[in-house]
Structure formats: C-alpha cells, structure tokens
Amino acid sequence: MTLNRIAPEAARLARRPVLQAAVTAGARCDDREQYRDLLDRNRSAPPAIWAAQQAAAQKLCAACPVRPACEELALRYGEGDRNSDDQVRGGRRGQDLGIDREIRQAGRIVTAVTADWQQRLGLAATARGAAGSSVTDVVIARDDNNMPVAA
Predict the structure, then answer these.
(1) Which of 43, 68, 74, 113 is the most exposed place for a label (fewest CB within 10 A)?
(2) d(CA 133, CA 74)
(3) b or e along 57-71 (b: 16 or more beta carbons within 10 Å of the residue's beta carbon)?
(4) What is the model's pTM?
C-alpha cells in the first residue's frame, strides 16, 4: 500500500492517521474550496441541480486513487445522515454513508473508531514517556464536591 493508492480492504484495516495521510496526499478533490459546491449541497439548489452535482461528484470520486480511504474516514467520523441528502464523500451519498454506519456496518465502525482512539491514547502516552514522565503518573485533584478527579 502506498499513500497514493489504497485498496478498500486496506482502508478498513488502517488507522485514522494512515487514512488521513492517504487522503491528504492523493485526493482528487484536495482543493476543497474548488469542489465545495460539488460535494456539499446548497440548500437553495433545486433537487434536479443537486442530482446533477451528485452525479458529477460521484464521477470525480470514482477515479480517485484514495476513494476507499475517504469513504472509510467519512464512515468512522460521522459524515452523512440517513435522513438528509446533503453531501458526497468517498463517492457515496450522505444517506448511504449514514445507513452503512448506523445499520449495515455499525459493529465494524465502532470497533474501528475504538481502535483509532486507543492508538491515539497510546501515542500520547508514548510521547509523555519520551518527555520524561511516566505513563502511570496521574495527578489527583479535588473538584468542588470533594470528589477526586484525574488532572
């Protein structure tokens, strides 16, 4: 796997930093401002105009080498809503992303997001350890109710 091309299975197994690096390095829509009208619906646009924009966005995404990484990021981080047709991410309509995230792939997405967070926490702990503090060092303080809290 290179940062310029990523396969769907590799995207599903990758952690967020790898996915984000792939999208940043190789997305066809990397100039987000130029493609904003194409990828995000203008609420004042009639449905026929939005349908044409959606089709153009899906065509743009279909040829993108990092489309699977973009789709995986959108699934993991809540883009798209099954009750609203307002965007295209990773070549998929927002409604389709919402249905996959909430129904079809809910368990897999929760597992992936959890693993992403565990990796981020592990990296933060490693950085603290490299800075000279122990990962087990926790400062205990008291809040207004005299309950101990980690600080």
Answers:
(1) 43
(2) 35
(3) bbebbeebbbbbbbb
(4) 0.76
> What's residue 45's pLDDT?
87
Q: For residue 142, what pLDDT band results from cuts at 50, 70 and 90?
A: very low
Distance separating alpha carbons of residues 122 and 22, to the nearest angstrom:
21
Q: Is the pLDDT of residue 151 over 60?
A: no
The amino acid at residue 7 is A
- Rounded Cα–Cα distance for residues 58 and 88 (Å): 7
For residue 148, what are the β-bridge partners?
142
Question: Is the backbone of residue 88 left (phi > 0), alpha (psi -120 to 50) or beta?
Answer: beta
Strand partners, 141: 149
How many angstroms from the chain centroid is the CA of residue 104?
Answer: 17
H or E element in which residue 93 lies: strand 92-93
Return the CA Rg of the chain: 20
Question: Which residues pair with residue 149 across a beta bridge?
Answer: 141
Residues across the chain: 151
Q: How many CB atoms lie within 10 A of CB 15?
A: 15
